[in-house]
Amino acid sequence: MTRLPFAVILSAVAFGCGREYQDNTPTPPPASVYVTPTVTAPPAATVTGTVTWPGELPTVPPINGLIRSGDGSKWGDKPNHFAAKIDPKSRGIAGAVVWLTGVDPAQAKPWPYPPLTVEARDYRIRVKQGETTNPVGFVRVGDAVTLTSADADYHMIRARGAATFTLAFPKPNVPARRKLDHVGHVEFTSGTGYFWSAADVFACDHPYFAVTDDAGTFRFDHVPPGEYEVVAWLRNWRLLSADRDPETGRTMRLTFAPPFTARANVTVETTAVVDLAFPAAGVK
User: Fold this and answer.
1) What is the pLDDT along the chain (284 residues), one digit of tens a residue?
2) Considering the entire predicted model, what is its pTM?
3) What single string gives the DSSP state of each residue in 30-91?
4) Which residues lie below 8 Å from residue 69, measured CB to CB, with a gap of 6+?
5) All domains of the chain in start order, with CATH
């Protein structure tokens, strides 16, 4: 007989009572806080640029495993959703995360992003922010994200990185909320074996974070004049290991190589243009 963890039993009882799930897991005190900007008229300086892949276009194979769906489980392949989207002509990379470091939060523009929801839907983990659904989202440090499932099947959403917790969703459309109290990257994955998907959320202490468009370009408006470092970040699709359930053979967790990063210093007065390229040597 398989014994469920006590925390999972409590979650199931709470959902069975028909009330909204309240996560009361103790959390450490915040390491950082979001400082409300004090400027009355944000400066008009801008930073624009492009993130490119200079090397040969990579070949990314699918991920093989025991795939569970509404029709049951069977061995098969799932596309590697972490494969970079690279324009074959310009080498511009879509979906790279770019941000500024060295920003004084008190001099920054107001927070531009709407509230964020991490959702399990169609056996994938996605980020919903406003009217858009993406694999990446941004939240002010200290704010809460909403987590929910839209699937009838049992889901667990797991957070690792700048936040560490796992929440159970035995029923669909019963949301939970959890604060992200530390600046940094949080990876949300499935804790119930839907290994082919993940979402990335960045808890930020200033608003100068962006995702590159289809051409690999980005833009920051209303940047305070000063000296900054521009950082570009991209998920790595190279699979290092797969953890399997010893009884079922199902893949429960994937470990990928460290993300690609690129950095450049920039002086911002009125406008600045920065081009970044990921080191692609040895990547296949």
Assistant:
1) 445 444 443 343 343 444 444 444 444 455 556 777 876 666 779 999 999 998 889 989 888 777 766 666 777 788 888 899 999 999 999 999 999 999 999 999 999 999 999 999 988 899 999 888 989 999 999 999 999 999 998 999 999 999 999 999 999 999 999 999 999 999 999 988 888 889 999 999 999 999 999 999 999 999 999 999 999 999 999 988 878 777 766 777 888 899 999 999 999 998 999 999 997 544 54
2) 0.83
3) PS--PPPP--SS---EEEEEEEE--SPPPP---EEEEEEETTEEEEEEE--TT--EE-TTT-
4) 123
5) 45-111+207-248+257-284 (2.60.40.10), 113-203 (2.60.40.420)
Both tokens assigned to 249 = 């053979």
